[in-house]
Amino acid sequence: MRFYKKSDIVMIAAILLISLASWALYGYYTKDKPAKAEIYYYSELVETLCLDGAEERIFSIPQNPNVVFKMDKEGSIAFIASDCPDKICVKTGKIHRPGEYAACLPNGIILKIVPSGERGDDDADIIIGN
User: Do the beta carbons of residue 102 and residue 72 sit within 8 Å?
Assistant: First the structure.
């Protein structure tokens, strides 16, 4: 007794092919775009940082000094310390492409990477996965 048909395999292969092509095209079009980081505290924008790689710095926001960020010279940013119990935000690692985000939900902080300059309606809000 078979649990699948040939058409099932063709359909799965088509879905995988379309997904991989979409992922590759998005990566190609966003790899060289300048980006900035936006830090939100309970849905309120509190800081915007240019990720041009000009300086390396460690900082926190005044609303919650227990959450610490690190901005690298290569143009990425990450949570490096937090007083939340599970530390998922710290385990997220460095983010640098428009559409990526990291969140510390117990502290109400969201770190989002967005394109520099004007944003269009077709720009990504978030990216899920790598």
Answer: no
Q: What is the 3-state secondary structure (H, E, C) of the chain?
A: CCCCCHHHHHHHHHHHHHHHHHHHHHHHHHCCCCEEEEEEECCEEEEEEECCCCCCEEEEECCEEEEEEEECCCCCEEEEECCCCCCHHHHCCCECCCCCEEEEHHHCEEEEEEECCCCCCCCCCCCCCC
State pLDDT tens for residues 73-93: 888 999 999 999 999 999 999
**pLDDT tens by residue, 95-109:** 988 888 999 999 999
d(CA 34, CA 98): 8
d(CA 80, CA 90): 5
Q: How far apart are CA 130 and CA 111, in angstroms?
A: 16
The residue written with tokens 């092509």 in the block is 21
